[in-house]
Amino acid sequence: MRTVLIANRGAVAARVLRTLKRMGLRSVVVYSEADRDLPYVRQADEAYCIGPGPAVQSYLNESALFDVVRRSRADAVHPGYGFLSENAGFACSVEAAGLTFIGPSPRWIDAMGHKTPPGSDCIGKRGASCNRNRWSQDQRATTSTHVDLRALARG
């Protein structure tokens, strides 16, 4: 791995950029027309405009991202978080193109992305208990429980 395309923006991209620099790897960033003046664009080794401001027309435009991969000769893609980081199809496309996807495997992205219904996701299938019943006031007062609420629909 020598050149990494960061498929994200702003502070997320800046954090990844700092790490790539410490690792001695070349960085390629993408930006929308609305983000052209953000600091991360100037901090990267290469920067490419991938479309207008709305994310669906730029940061989520996989065709534009793969065009930048080809033009920059990147050999890896870091999705940051949000945007495409929870998209198993995108991770598959990256790997199918012979690139390194810096993140979980598409299989795990897909498995972890299904957050409902309780008990039917990969966590529940691995033995974690999911209580679907309402607890009484006494039960709530005497039970220490970690609750992880996650957004639905890849939120």
From TrEMBL:
Keywords: ATP-binding, Biotin, Ligase, Nucleotide-binding, Plasmid. One of its GO terms (molecular function) is ligase activity. PROSITE patterns: BC (PS50979). Signal peptide: none annotated. Residues 1-155 form the Biotin carboxylation domain. PANTHER family: CARBOXYLASE:PYRUVATE/ACETYL-COA/PROPIONYL-COA CARBOXYLASE, METHYLCROTONOYL-COA CARBOXYLASE SUBUNIT ALPHA, MITOCHONDRIAL-RELATED. This is Biotin carboxylation domain-containing protein.
